[in-house]
Amino acid sequence: MSPRVRNGLVASALGDHFIRMCDIRHKVAVLTLSGHYKSVIAVQWSPLFHNMLASAGEDGTVRIWDIRNPLRCLVSLDYTNKGSPTSARNVGHSAPVNGLTFTHDGLHLLSTGQDNTLRLWDVYQGRNVLVEYDGELVNKARLCVTLALTKSDKCIPPLVFHPTSDGRILIYDLFDGTLHDSLHGPMSSINCVIWRQYDQELYSGDGDKRILVWRSKAEEQENEDVCVEMNEQDTWSDYE
C-alpha cells in the first residue's frame, strides 16, 4: 500500500494482477490499473510527479504509470536496456520483484527481487543504471520488502539500507554499489527498515515481530554524522 497525501489517493496491491486506487477522503475506489500478468507485490508513488506510480510483482516486471492515462503503463523497465519502453517482453528481474523505493528527488528508482539483485533505474530515461551492488544479498521474502535511503543532500555518499532474509541489513553506496557495512542482530528474516535522518537512527522489523533501533557507535561517541565516513567493520549497535 502506498498513500499519496496531496491527491488523497491510496494505491494498493491486494495479491491479484491489479493496482487499485482508493480515495480516502470519500472512501471509494476510483481507479484500477491493469498490466501485470501475475500478482502485484509492491507499489510506490513518485515523490516528484504526483500522478506517477511504480509497481512490481511476481511476473518480474517493474512498471511506471501515469494514473491520468490508466489504460497502459508509461514504461515497462528492462534490465538489459534492449527492449522498447512498453514491450510485453521486458522484465526488471529474473524472479519476482518484491521491493521498490524512489530516491528522495524522484529521479531514480530502486527495485529488489527474489533473484537476489538490487537494481537502480533512471526514471527519466527508463533505463537500468547498471550499478553492481557488492555483497551476498539474500532476498527470499514472499511479501513486500521495504528499503530505506538517506537523502543525497544530507549524506555523502547517499546510502541504501537493504534488509535480507538471512537476518542482515546491508548498507550500500547508492550510486557505485560499494558495500559499506553489514549489520547483524539476534533476529530472523528482516522485512523492513526505516531511516530517521534527524536522529541518525535506523529502525528494522523482523519475522520474530520485533522492532529494533540501530544507532552508529560513532554517532553515540562523537556525535558525528554517520553518513560522512563508514568503514568495513560493523560500527553499529542495536537496542530494543
Secondary-structure blueprint of this entry?
Elements: E1 2-4, E2 9-13, E3 18-23, E4 28-34, E5 40-45, E6 52-57, E7 62-66, E8 75-76, E9 97-102, E10 108-113, E11 117-122, E12 127-128, E13 148-149, E14 159-163, E15 168-173, E16 179-184, E17 190-196, E18 201-206, E19 211-216, H1 217-222, E20 236-239
Give an overview in words.
There is one protein chain. The chain has 1 helix and 20 strands. A hairpin with a 5-residue loop joins strand 9 and strand 10. It has 240 residues and is an all-beta fold. The longest helix is centred in the last third of the chain and has 6 residues, at 217-222. The strands form 5 sheets. A 4-stranded antiparallel sheet has the order 1-2-3-4, with no helix packed on it. Strands 5-6-7-8 form a 4-stranded antiparallel sheet, with no helix packed on it. Strands 9-10-11-12 form a 4-stranded antiparallel sheet, with no helix packed on it. Helix content is 2%, strand content 42%. It folds into 2 domains: 1-130, 7 Propeller (Methylamine Dehydrogenase, Chain H), CATH 2.130.10; 140-240. The radius of gyration is 18 Å and the shape is globular. Mean pLDDT is 88; it is low at 222-234. WD repeats lie at residues 33-69, 90-131. This is 8315_t:CDS:1. One of its GO terms (cellular component) is Cul4A-RING E3 ubiquitin ligase complex. InterPro entries: Rad28/ERCC8/Ckn1/ATCSA-1, WD40/YVTN_repeat-like_dom_sf, WD40_PAC1, WD40_repeat_CS, WD40_repeat_dom_sf, WD40_rpt. One of its GO terms (biological process) is proteasome-mediated ubiquitin-dependent protein catabolic process.
